[in-house]
Amino acid sequence: MDKITYNELTNPQSTMKKVTIRDVAREAGVSVTLVSFVMNAKMGKDGRLDCPVNPNTAARVLDVAKRLGYRRNNAAASLRSGKSHSIAVIVSDIANPFFAEICRNLENIAYEAGYTAIFASSEESPRKLEHLVETMVGFNVEGLIVAPCLGSENALSRVLNVGIPTVLIDRDVPGHEFGRVLVDNVDAGTMATKYLVHQGFGKIEMISYKLGVTSLTDREYGYSKSMEEAGLKDDIRIHRIDYETEAARKDTIEIFRDALKRGTEAFVLPTKKLAMYGFNALNVLGLNLPKDFSFVCFDESDIYDLKKPVIPHVVQPLAEIGTKSFTLLQQMIEEKVSEDEMNISLKSKLVLGGHFGGDPIEASF
Amino acid sequence: MDKITYNELTNPQSTMKKVTIRDVAREAGVSVTLVSFVMNAKMGKDGRLDCPVNPNTAARVLDVAKRLGYRRNNAAASLRSGKSHSIAVIVSDIANPFFAEICRNLENIAYEAGYTAIFASSEESPRKLEHLVETMVGFNVEGLIVAPCLGSENALSRVLNVGIPTVLIDRDVPGHEFGRVLVDNVDAGTMATKYLVHQGFGKIEMISYKLGVTSLTDREYGYSKSMEEAGLKDDIRIHRIDYETEAARKDTIEIFRDALKRGTEAFVLPTKKLAMYGFNALNVLGLNLPKDFSFVCFDESDIYDLKKPVIPHVVQPLAEIGTKSFTLLQQMIEEKVSEDEMNISLKSKLVLGGHFGGDPIEASF
DNA sequence: TTGAAAGCGATACCAC
DNA sequence: GTGGTATCGCTTTCAA
C-alpha cells in the first residue's frame, strides 16, 4: 500500500484553486470594481457599509465571497496600492523577556490602530538584521521598529536607512532620520544609587561589564555622579568583569569576599545577569540580604519578588516603550511629526517595598 | 518658523522613487529577464553565481543594482510566483518566555533553510487569531505554525483550516489535516512523581488548577498513575486551586500549613506559577527546602537555579518544539510527509543536580 | 451606482 | 546566454 501524502489527505481534488476577486465578480454577476469596493468597505456607525454600492448588491457580493471562501491576496493589493497596513518590528533577541514584553504591548496598540505588526529577531547578528530588513521592506511594510544589534551599532545606520519610517528602540545608531524611543540610563543609575544613599549607606559599589556599551556606561555615570553629589567620591568603586563568561561568575565571588573585608554595605547590580552573579556569590559565601549587603538590581527576576519586601530593582518602562514607539512610527508614517518630537526619552522606575498581602510600589529618587 | 516634518527631513527631493528591476535593466543595458536571473541566483560553491548568465554581465548587473539601491519587491515576486519563502508563526502570547524560546529556535532553523519566519501574537484572543491568520495568508506565507488560544480550541479548527500547511504546537485542536508537535504531559507528570518516589518519599502531593486544560489534567494523570504503581494509592492528593487569583496564593499557604500537620514530604508543582505560589508559601510560613518539603517544579525560573543543587524541575524541550515544528511544516509544504509522521510527541526533561562549578544535568525517570 | 481597462513589479515561458 | 511579453490579483482612475 502506498503512503498517503499530506497533499492527498487535505486536497481530494489535488488543487484547491484560489478564489479571486474575479471569481466572486463572475458568480455575483457584477464587476471586479464592485467587489473591490465591497471588500474594502468599513462598517459605518449605522451598521451599513460606507461605500458607493447598492446595499443589495453589496450584500449579494458579501454572500458570494463567503460561500466561495474568498480571501484577499495582500501581495496583490499591496503591490498595487503601495500600502500594506502593516509594520515590522525587528528585535535583537525575541527570547529576551524584555523584548517580548515590548512586543506584546506594541502588538496591542498597533492592532487597535488597524495595523498588523509582524515580528522578527536578528539574534544579535548584523547579517541577519540586514536580511530581515530587506525581507520586511520587500513585504511593503509601512514602517520599521528596530532594536539594533549589540556592538555593531555604527555599521548599522546604512542598513537601516531604507527610505521608510524607522524608529529605534533600546539601542541607538547615528542618523537624524530615525525616530527614537530610548531609556534614560543615566537617570536609572542615579536613581539606584540615590536610593541606597537615602537608606543611609555610604560604601556603595557597582559591578559592571568591561564591554563599553552605552546602556551600561550611562548607568555607571549615574552612579558615579550621585556618589560625588553625596560627598562619597572616595567610595566610588566600579568593578568591571568579563561579559557572560564563567570567569564572571567567579570574579563576582571574589569581589564579594573582598567587599566583606572592605566593609562594603551595598551594591548596584545594573543588569539582571549581574544580579544573578550576585545572588550566586551570596549563596557560595553563605551571606544574606540585607544582613551582609544591600542590593539594587535591574530588570525583572522571580528572585526579586521571592520575599517581601521585594529586592529593590530598577525596571524599564516596557509597555511605554512599546506603545510610544508605535505611536511615533504611526505619526512618521502619516508625516505629522516635527523633528523635536522624534526623540523620546523614557524614565525607568524603581520598584520597592511590598509586604505580605501588599503589592510592590514604585518610587522616584 | 514652520515645523520641519519628517518627510522633508529625510526626503530632500520629496520623492525617493522606488528602484525597480526595470530601472536596473535599463541602466545596465540588459533585459529585465537577465536582472531577474541575477537577483535570484544563489552562490555556487565556487563563489560563482549559478545561473545561465555571463559572469561579466552578472557582475555589471549586480553593480548597477547596488548603485541604484535596488531592493526586490516581495509583494510582486510573491504575487507572480505564488511563493513567498516565508512562514508565519502565531503564538498565543509572545511575552511568555516559553513561546519566546520556541520562536528563537524556530527562527534560526527556518533561516538556515532559506525561509523567513514572521511572528505574531494572538494574545489569547480568538478574534485576533482569526485576523492574524487572514493577514498572514494574505501575505502568501507558505505555511503556518500556530499555538491555539486557551479555551476556544474547538472553535478554532474552522479558522485554521485555510488550505495551507499548518502545524499545531503547545495545544491541540481537532482536524486530521494539521501537523502536530505536542509535548507528552502524562510522561512529564510521571517523571516528576517517579523521581520523588525514587528519592524515598511516599507522602507526595500535587497542587493544580481547577480549570481542566489537558496539559494539566495529563500531568495530574501521570502523577496519579505513578503513585498507584508505587503502591501509594492512598496518598494521592491533588489540590485544585483557582486560576491566577489572589485566592490562589492564599490557598497555597493554607495547603502548606495543613500539609505540615499531615506529614507531607513532597509536592509536585506542575506549572511555574504554581511553583511561585509554593515559594511564597514557604516564605510566609518560614519553611525551607529541602528540610521541610521537597519540590519538583515545572518550566524555568531563576529561583530554581539559585542554589546548587538546583531545585528539580521539568522543562519542555523548547528548542526541539521549535525545530521539529519547522521541519515538519517544511515537509508538509514540500508534500513529502506521510500521515503517520504528522503527529510528533516530544518528551519533557527533568533537570536535576548541579553543584558549585558544575552544570545541571538532565535525567530520566 | 456600476464597469472597463491600465497598471503595480516581479517571474515564467518561449523564442532567438 | 539573452530578450520580449503575458501574467499574477488587486486597486485605481475615468467614463458611462
In the CATH hierarchy, the third-tier topology of the largest domain in chain A is known as Rossmann fold
Task: Give me the number of helical elements of chain A.
Answer: 13
The CATH C-level class name of the largest domain in chain A: Alpha Beta
- Tell me the major beta sheet of chain A: 7 strands, mixed
Give unreliable regions of chain A as ranges: 1-15
Strand order of the largest sheet of chain A: 7-6-8-9-10-12-13
Number of domains of chain A: 3
Biggest interface and its residues per chain?
A-B, 74 and 74 residues
The proportion of strand residues of chain A reads 15-25%
Provide mean pLDDT of chain A, rounded.
Answer: 88
Describe this structure in words.
- The structure is a homodimer of 365-residue chains.
- Chain A has helices spanning 6-10, 21-28, 32-40, 55-68, 74-81, 97-112, 126-138, 153-160, 185-198, 214-229, 246-262, 272-285, 318-333, and strands spanning 86-91, 116-121, 143-146, 166-169, 179-183, 204-209, 238-241, 266-268, 294-298, 313-315, 343-346, 349-352, 361-363.
- The N and C termini of chain A lie far apart (75 Å).
- Mean pLDDT of chain A is 88; it is low at 1-15.
- Chain A has 365 residues and is α/β, with parallel strands linked by helices.
- The first copy, chain A, folds into three domains: 6-72, Orthogonal Bundle (434 Repressor (Amino-terminal Domain)), CATH 1.10.260; 85-183 and 319-346, Rossmann fold, CATH 3.40.50.2300; 185-316 and 350-363, Rossmann fold (3-Layer(aba) Sandwich), CATH 3.40.50.2300.
- Helix content of chain A is 43%, strand content 16%.
- In chain A, helix 2 (21-28) crosses helix 4 (55-68), helix 6 (97-112) packs across helix 13 and helix 9 runs parallel beside helix 10.
- Chain A contains 13 helices and 13 strands.
- In chain A, strand 3 (143-146), helix 8 (153-160) and strand 4 form a beta-alpha-beta unit.
- In chain A, strands 7-6-8-9-10-12-13 form a seven-stranded mixed beta sheet, with helices on both faces.
- Chain A is elongated.
- Chains A and B meet through helix 1, helix 5, helix 6, strand 2 and helix 7 of A and helix 1, helix 5, helix 6, strand 2 and helix 7 of B.
- The structure holds a DNA duplex (16 and 16 nucleotides).
